[in-house]
Specification:
- The protein is α/β, with parallel strands linked by helices.
- The chain has a single domain, classed as Aldolase class I (TIM Barrel).
- Helices cover 41% and strands 13% of the residues.
- The chain is built from 15 helices and 14 strands.
- The strands form 4 sheets. Strands 1-2-5-8-9-10-11-14 form an 8-stranded parallel beta barrel, surrounded by 6 helices. A two-stranded antiparallel ribbon has the order 3-4.
- A hairpin with a 5-residue loop joins strand 12 (356-357) and strand 13.
- The longest helix has 22 residues, at 79-100.
- The mean pLDDT is 94.
- Bound molecules: phosphoenolpyruvate and cobalt (II) ion.
- The site of cobalt (II) ion has 5 residues, from loops.
């Protein structure tokens, strides 16, 4: 049993990277007190359920699909935006479930992903230097002094927007939108113009026939109509995450009730730092991002600290090495963590190691590099005999032009058309679906075939 949750002051004493500097401590305390009175956004029991499902991923029996915006914004909390993001994730999940015949665990990077670590504290344009944009949780994107001032009241807005988003997501996934019979409809509003589109429609037709067959046989299952969907974000801002950490009355243990799964980012994963200290005290399933400079010793020490009890499903390790480094950087990390005797969920973030800036000043990623990192991830795990458990992607349901390449062959010159992200470039809907097909191909052609519940059912004696 862990000692009590450290106080906020104790956490700050440990040193907390990437925090905003607020002008007025009393204002921050007032906001914190208000947040502590708000109801939890998720329940402890749901977090436990997700931990159980991540244990299935770690055991090689399921595949984790985690995705959403790099940075959600308050303005983008509209019904259409939330629906579009959900349906691209559902479409990807359908591709993976059907093409790879593997159960897919669906987790959104959504309903709380409002705070960003930045490589520089300030931004300079011409002769003006202002605080960097740190996400809508902290300040506003517009480049003027008032917008960039860190405002603690925004933390209340994070709570409100997360609550509204989660409410609609819960309604969508349980209220009929995720019904498999609606699959054609998920696509209806999109232009039917690509190979991916044709491949997707073909697959949906096949699933419809399979469903019709099952219904004709008398099967009518709840899982045709609803899906389980979980929320996640980077636990970055201590004031917010601490205020939403509550003692569950049922088990008398602490849970972070701001999301089902929270992760510690590459830039805040210092072993003795505040973020690791807060996260190690909560019972949620947690993630840790590891970049190419991490050593095997560091990775081993981190997993010991975050998962002292070797609890199945507790830890998801999200690697983001870069396409040209993954084949060298990943094996020692996998070996170091596996040698501790733990079964973690190994997840590939093929986005954050592959960002570059174009000559015209757009931050972008090439689809080919994203695909290359994913291929490296599958190759490494296949060589080591470990299960490539999932993918973590930045995507949107809209037809934005933020990443180059992919099925529509977006060029650097196209980026200006619809570049809408508040932070990192996201895969658009076609690129996301294309990635899902690529993963499905790897899962079906891979040498590591774990027995999953589908294969178990098919192999049962009858
Ligand atoms: C992110 O996920 O947006 C992010 C900042 O990633 P990382 O911690 O891997 O740099
Ligand atoms: Co990002």
């Amino acid at each position: 049993m862990l000692e009590a949750i450290p106080s906020l002051a104790e956490l700050h004493r440990l040193g907390a990277a990437q925090q905003p500097v607020y002008a007025d401590d009393a204002e921050v305390a007032r906001v914190q007190a208000a947040l502590r009175r708000r109801p939890p956004l998720v329940f402890a029991g749901e977090c436990d359920e997700l931990r159980g499902k991540i244990a299935e991923v770690a055991a090689g029996r399921s595949f984790l699909l985690q995705g959403g915006d790099c940075a959600e914004t308050f303005d983008s909390v509209t019904a259409a935006n939330i629906r579009n993001k959900l349906r691209v994730l559902l479409s990807m999940a359908v591709v993976l479930t059907y093409a790879a015949q593997v159960p897919v665990l669906k987790v959104g990077r959504i309903a709380g992903q409002y705070a960003k670590p930045r490589s520089r504290d300030t931004e300079t344009r011409g002769d003006v230097t202002l605080p960097a944009y740190r996400g809508d949780a902290v300040n506003a994107l517009a480049f003027d002094a008032a917008s960039r001032r860190p405002d603690p009241d925004r933390l209340l807005e994070v709570y409100n927007h997360s609550a509204a988003t989660l409410n609609l997501l819960r309604a969508f996934v349980k209220g009929g939108y995720a019904d498999l019979r609606a699959m054609h409809g998920w696509n209806a509003d999109f232009v039917h113009n690509s190979n991916v589109e044709a491949r997707y429609e073909e697959l949906v037709d096949e699933i419809s026939r399979a469903l019709a067959f099952m219904v004709a046989c008398g099967v009518d299952n709840e899982s045709f109509r609803t899906v389980d969907f979980y929320s996640s974000h980077e636990a970055l801002l201590l004031e917010y995450e601490h205020a939403l950490t509550r003692i569950d009355s049922r088990t008398a243990t602490p849970y972070n009730t701001s999301a089902h799964l929270i992760w510690v980012g590459e830039r805040t994963r210092q072993l003795g730092g505040a973020h690791v200290e807060l996260l190690r005290h909560v019972r949620n399933p947690i993630g840790v991002k590891l970049g190419p400079t991490v050593t095997g010793d560091e990775a081993g020490a981190l997993v010991d600290r975050l998962d002292p009890d070797h609890e199945p499903g507790r830890l998801t390790v999200i690697t983001r090495m870069g396409a040209d480094r993954i084949r060298d950087a990943l094996p020692p990390i996998v070996e170091a963590v596996e040698s501790t005797g733990r079964k973690v969920a190994w997840v590939c973030d093929p986005m954050h190691g592959n960002t570059f800036e174009t000559a015209t000043g757009y931050k972008t990623r090439a689809f080919s590099q994203v695909a290359e990192e994913l291929n490296g991830f599958f190759d490494v795990h296949e060589a080591l005999g470990t299960w490539p458990g999932g993918v973590h992607v930045e995507l949107t349901g809209d037809d934005v032009t933020e990443c180059v390449g992919g099925v529509d062959e977006l060029a650097e010159a196209d980026l200006a058309n619809r570049y809408e992200t508040a932070c990192d470039p996201r895969l658009n809907r076609n690129q996301s679906l294309e990635l899902a097909f690529l993963i499905a191909d790897r899962l079906t052609s891979g040498r590591i075939r774990r027995v999953n519940p589908v294969q178990e059912f098919l192999a049962e004696d009858f």
